[in-house]
Amino acid sequence: MIQDDPNSILSTWTPRKCPCQFSGVTCLAGRVSETNLSGSGLSGTVSFNAFTSLNALSVLKLSENILLTEDLFLGTKKLQTLDLSYNNITGSISGLTIPLSSCGSWSSIDLSGNGISGFVPVPLTNCTKLKSLNLSHNNFDGQIPKSLGELKTLQSLDLSHNRLTGWIPLEIGEACGSLQNLWISYNGTGVIPDSLSACSWIQTLDLSNNNISSPFPDKILRSFGSLQILLLSENSYPVCFRQRSLIELSIPDNLVTGEITMTISQCFELGTIDLSRNYLNGSMPPEIGNLQKLERFIAWYNNLAGTIPPEKIIEEKMSRKEEISYLFIVEHHRLSQP
Question: Hey, what domains does the chain have and what are their CATH numbers?
């Protein structure tokens, strides 16, 4: 039962009206195809049994409310998108039962920003057409299920900001035929499996703030031809980069030692580089000056020396009358401006 409707969003939901006239409802050919009550400020308990009679419903969005649920999943066969993010859903769903017949058409599930605990439910893999699964910002614990590798159409997987531990399972690589975005940050996962080298289409990889201490497999980096964003902060491993598609590289607070490799200058799309709080030494490679799109370079709390080399880019941007928006943060070094 809805206890509070501060914006009177449900005032139009009366038996005398056609559901297609309800606020937040979209119809197709006279049948309800989408219900979107996101950000309505609703509070109370919602039962999904009320939606099961809507056999043409394909999108249900109830995010950013204060809702509890009596039952978490629908039996609506046409449903494709379920968004329950940032509500008040708590407790364990480890024993959740999801029959294949009830989620065979689903392409997107978003349960992020709640207080859900327990293991990530294995039956989620019954939703074989899933393209996006977001379980971030909850209290899930245990290991990442190996069965997630069975989701062959998965494009985006977000498990960040939970309490997951153990190794990233080898089986994740089995979903790499379609995987484009993978977030596992702020957990306690351990070793990066070589099987991720199969993720040749991946664009965003966020493994920051874990307990990863093994070397980052060079085999993986060589295979990431589409990689744009690589976030590895708060771990402890050395890395070398050759990805020309990278637009953001963030590896602060690792145990990276030695000199800044010249290969970083081959990542021509880079706009942000963050190497702060490591053990880098030596001089700044002048080749960094060839990075035309670089706007932020952060390398404080290392042991670098020499000259900051952005002058070539600045000159070329001035010749094209482009806006110069540089941010070089290099305190605690022996660096000087040319």
Answer: 1-88 (3.80.10.10), 97-237 (3.80.10.10), 252-338 (3.80.10.10)
